[in-house]
Amino acid sequence: MSKIQLGVIFGSRSCEHEVAIISAVQLMRNVDREKYDVIPVYISQKGEWFTGAPLMDIKSYTPFDPFMKGILPVHLDLTAGSGALLHFAPPKGLLGGGKEETVARLDCVIPVMHGLHGEDGSLQGLLELANIPYASTGVMGSAVGMDKIAMKRFFMGCGFPSLPGCPLTRSEWERDADAAMDRVEKELPYPVFVKPACLGSSIGVSRADDRAKLKEALELAFSYDRRVLVEKGLDRPIEVNCSVLGFDGERRPSVLEMPNSGAGFLDFSEKYLAGSGGSKGMASLKRIVPAPIGEELTEKLQSLSCEIFDALDCKGVVRIDFMLDRESDEYYITEINTIPGSLAYYLWTETGLPYSRLIDEMVEYAMKAHREKERNSFAYASDILSGAVIGGGKKGGKLKL
């Protein structure tokens, strides 16, 4: 039986570019080579696409050299079902003509993107147009899951427990900073957390305990995003995370983790640079697994995680983060990561599912979702074109457009 040609698309124009590289290299090292031919597809910070075996080595990115031997610039053929990665070979000699060559055909794609231009539904939309199966949440769920303001409104609309928040725009801030802070203070008590709407990995996130700190936090957040969410904070909350794997009602939760021994908010440095550090991505973070929160609360959060997964019509593997209030014992959804750091494989190995098998299941769900899509009708028979008059009025029974 022929192997599946598995594309791993990663990188892109995002503040989380380097984290995505680490997650992708981890994944490519764990793919079962008896079942798949791995085709790395790296999108540089300039938005250029490349493929080639050297991209599977983390050393190729320190720094990245687009002229490295074995690396080719490519682009994706968007013809539905083609799956072709194309490379334009330059002309040889003065009289030679250049030509476009197919260097690979992708049967399935695992997007390993964190942040904008990949995790936010943009890459998913491209793959939908190209009609290539892909192992991540679709356009709608990805877009909502990336945008913290839309995500919070969605969660609250679904009745899921969510902390109150106050959205602001850069134009509102620049027009009258004091009025913007007045609105925050009217709606929310201190402490608050200030977050760029469409960033992850805690980049640009700050805690503010007074107006002076709020001003600093907003200035930082608006340097990363046009829209910012100010969210009610908890005093020394406990963070608990749960991953979910599946598609279309067939899903299951992982064990729960307590990152950083429940010490509360983790910034980028604590997530990726502490200890053994960035080479292991999220997998390097100190954590307690399973989270010591009791069987009853564990089951509640696992069940809620599955409800969230279903509500956003997720696919593949996601991670949902919660905050527990030490004072009230209440719990709140912080966010969903539709392409979590390190693909949350470290939570699944704790359930007895090795990373290679997790990848298998992600591919299986991608193929299942694609088969379901192919059952849809994409044409509707009508005579509208025969009766259309472009730019004219309705004459002789013709339809005006």
What does this structure look like?
With 401 residues, the protein is of the alpha+beta class. It has 3 domains: 4-134, Rossmann fold (3-Layer(aba) Sandwich), CATH 3.40.50; 145-159 and 236-371, ATP-grasp fold, B domain (D-amino Acid Aminotransferase, Chain A, domain 1), CATH 3.30.470; 165-232, 2-Layer Sandwich (Dna Ligase, domain 1), CATH 3.30.1490. Helices cover 29% and strands 26% of the residues. The chain contains 11 helices and 19 strands. It has helices at residues 17-30, 122-130, 139-146, 148-157, 170-175, 177-187, 211-222, 268-272, 295-311, 345-349, 355-374, and strands at residues 4-11, 36-43, 49-51, 72-73, 75-76, 84-89, 99-105, 108-112, 165-169, 192-196, 206-208, 227-232, 238-247, 250-259, 287-288, 315-324, 331-337, 388-389, 399-400. The strands form 5 sheets. Strands 4-3-2-1-8 form a 5-stranded mixed sheet, with helices on both faces. A 5-stranded antiparallel sheet has the order 15-14-13-16-17. The longest helix is centred in the last third of the chain and has 20 residues, at 355-374. The chain starts with a strand and ends with a strand. The model has no long low-confidence stretch (mean pLDDT 90).
Mean pLDDT: 90
Shape descriptor: globular
Helix content class: 25-40%
H/E element order: EHEEEEEEEHHHEHHEEHEEEHEHEEHHEE
Total individual domains: 3
Number of strands: 19
First and last CA, distance: 52 Å
Cα radius of gyration in angstroms: 23 Å
Tally of separate helices: 11
